[in-house]
UniProtKB/TrEMBL annotation, chains A, B:
<feature type="domain" description="HTH lacI-type">
    <location>
        <begin position="6"/>
        <end position="60"/>
    </location>
</feature>
<dbReference type="GO" id="GO:0000976">
    <property type="term" value="F:transcription cis-regulatory region binding"/>
</dbReference>
<keyword id="KW-0804">Transcription</keyword>
<keyword id="KW-0238">DNA-binding</keyword>
<dbReference type="InterPro" id="IPR010982">
    <property type="entry name" value="Lambda_DNA-bd_dom_sf"/>
</dbReference>
<keyword id="KW-0805">Transcription regulation</keyword>
<dbReference type="InterPro" id="IPR028082">
    <property type="entry name" value="Peripla_BP_I"/>
</dbReference>
<dbReference type="GO" id="GO:0003700">
    <property type="term" value="F:DNA-binding transcription factor activity"/>
</dbReference>
<protein>
    <submittedName>
        <fullName>Substrate-binding domain-containing protein</fullName>
    </submittedName>
</protein>
<dbReference type="Pfam" id="PF00356">
    <property type="entry name" value="LacI"/>
</dbReference>
<dbReference type="Pfam" id="PF00532">
    <property type="entry name" value="Peripla_BP_1"/>
</dbReference>
<dbReference type="InterPro" id="IPR000843">
    <property type="entry name" value="HTH_LacI"/>
</dbReference>
<dbReference type="InterPro" id="IPR001761">
    <property type="entry name" value="Peripla_BP/Lac1_sug-bd_dom"/>
</dbReference>
Amino acid sequence: MSRSEPTVRDVAERAGVSSATVSRVMNDAPNVDKQLARRVREAVKATGYVPNAAGRSLRARSSSQIAVLIPDADNPYFSQVVSEVEPAARSAGYSVMLCHTGNEPDQEQTYLDQIVARRMAGVIAIPSDESWSGLTPLTEANIPVVLVDRRLPDVEVDRIATDNMDAGRQAAVHLRDKGFRRPACITGPETLTTTEDRLLGFSHAWSTSAGGAPALYRGDLHFDSGFTAMTEILDDGDIDCVFVTNNRMSAGAFQAIRGLPNPPALLATDDDIWTRLVTPSVSVIQQPIRDTGRLAAQMLIDRIAAPNEMPRTTLLSSKVIERESTAGGPPSRG
Amino acid sequence: MSRSEPTVRDVAERAGVSSATVSRVMNDAPNVDKQLARRVREAVKATGYVPNAAGRSLRARSSSQIAVLIPDADNPYFSQVVSEVEPAARSAGYSVMLCHTGNEPDQEQTYLDQIVARRMAGVIAIPSDESWSGLTPLTEANIPVVLVDRRLPDVEVDRIATDNMDAGRQAAVHLRDKGFRRPACITGPETLTTTEDRLLGFSHAWSTSAGGAPALYRGDLHFDSGFTAMTEILDDGDIDCVFVTNNRMSAGAFQAIRGLPNPPALLATDDDIWTRLVTPSVSVIQQPIRDTGRLAAQMLIDRIAAPNEMPRTTLLSSKVIERESTAGGPPSRG
DNA sequence: CCCCCGGAAGTAAACGATTTCTCCCACCAG
DNA sequence: CTGGTGGGAGAAATCGTTTACTTCCGGGGG
């Protein structure tokens, strides 16, 4: 029923050559007779030979897989990054192992062990927080790492991210230009550099250009905390515009003002599909997610080729997309 | 600088035992002296030994990875399936390789080669259409496959999917019970079993219970074609309710009626975030996506353990979630 | 004419973990 | 006292590929 898979020796025998020659043909080595090469290729076809990746990887002491470590595959930001990394990696001859840590340390540890055990060619990681300890085992095993989106203190490693400070600045400029005067910011925990940088950029730009500081509401990045924060803002009164620094809290915040007659202006983060469908449509800071994924893969591939060069950081800029939720200016003069 | 990784022999030497014993300890084999086992474990810690997956996989003639083949990681349906498969697989000791075919045959072929080359333990596949040829190389290599969501003709293989005919029937019942009388259906190409089954269930239930056939509009599953179809429906007039059979066309269809005073009722597919945020909120057929992913993984793991049993098909039922877009009944009698 | 060089192909030794086979020993029953 | 039994551990073969080393050519220069 199930014969065992053909090996390089079976092919060699059928082509009347040695296994070394077969290997040379498979790897396009120079100095192989055209005639023989053709015979080998025919034998490969005839036997249906597919090189065993384990054997190859054992001999080569590395594999042609890269790992992508993400906290949560459901979040469209992460899944878009993944779907851009994948084709870029494949066209360079790598395949992608998806590691979905769910923000849980033991799950992450399992994957880190796997990555080392498989001698993966490299890792693209979105760490869960700034105390991320996963980097050490990887660097010790000489596995190149590219960080996406989040910054770690005291480490020298390749990184690609949105210029979050600048994104916050753009948000402030947009809201001020539209005539709003009493801003609030719904943001994440202080330990998360992504949202914290956006807050810092926003606050700094606001205080230097308009004066004063935005009211501050912190959530846990999820939908519900965005809803709760916006509800508090409505209760507190006196706020005429709200900047939300991540995608899910943006949706939650919108839910809280849905259908209200005179809601505060809303500037959300990430251009998800819902922002165009709701009424009023929602202005957003659009991050260059697709570029991020593509360039992360490129960066990793470059790093694998040149392990000893200096680490780089690439920052990509975002832009404001204006829609109805900030178009109107403040509701009234008072 | 970079010493080479410790091997089983290094550990053996340090613990004063043979490599065989180390292997036995690592794999929890019975009949190992407690004392020795402890010494081995200490040596493992001290050396930082991590078993080389390639060596193990070569000897075992199989790997502990499963592959998930999806057409498009961006689609929330697929990414949710993946994010459920992953933890279920991991807790059974498998890791997940993500294969993102982008509906392109050559990309898919690359991955199929990889899957065979790596002797993967199994594959969860969402084929792009009913002429999917990827199954053959896998079954020839004795790699178990579980199909998700889509049906293939003439193959006997494990499958898990939503009961799409029943979903269509539920849609018809809901719209008829709400008092609508002139339905349209926006659906996908005839070759896609998923959307076709929903259409069939819808049409059949409608004709037997209310009489007549729904007006038919076909799209290519993407946002724009949903928008176009709904625009045509509005032009054609005479339609009082619309059932859309996939998630992205649902969003496009909503876009076309956004803000209109008396739009036809809309019943969408998949409970995406936007359906609750828009005005009017949108009634949906909710598929059990999370169960689908979890059970697909379970099914594959069972199959790996028992390769020779008969293939099974599991159908999961969906349910209608009623919101504002179908709540009102038909706009007027005249 | 001889030597050396270089291209082409084969031989065999790695890579690292597992596992069969074998050996040793202690213990127990006859 | 002896033969059998079974647990515990080591030696060595094995998985399939790649590659350093060898071998065998033929040809060109001294």
